[in-house]
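I need you to check the entry underneath: sequence plus fold tokens. Let me know what the token row says about the fold.

>
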Amino acid sequence: MTSEQNRVLVELEEKIIKNRLEGKDTSWIETEEELIDLKHALIKELNIKEYSTYEGTRIDVHDYSNKIRYIIMENAEILESPMDTEKQGGCYVATCVYGSYDCPPVWTLRRFRDDILAHNVFGRLFIRFYYATSPTAVRLFGKQKWFHKLFKTPLDKFVKKLQENGVENTPYND
């Protein structure tokens, strides 16, 4: 990645963060550190890959939350195109906590649901219970800071453990 591409990438990340936070309820954020953590989490949600092509180095940035793909060319020109990302299931609590259905932690949890939980009777019972209760819980409490705080740390730890055990955090269509 050239220094010019790096500069453009940082500016693009800042633009995406600003767009993602605009109009969102961030009243649950109490400290500057929590805001910085949220911004870092939003950057982590972006799928950023560097490619070498015959035209030179290219940086792909997938913003799944806004369904936009950016390509930063060797000359630091930014190409922008819409993405087709139909969501079919729902990870209600994780989507609420992480702010996006299409981000690495939620991709990990969706894979866990589909590849592990769905393959045994207790897992299927949990899935059924979860989908019966979580939409209502998120609708009633999803904007409350205690709700985010209650689930954020346990979800982070669980996602980390799943990833350490080989569950991927790459884009996932279920």
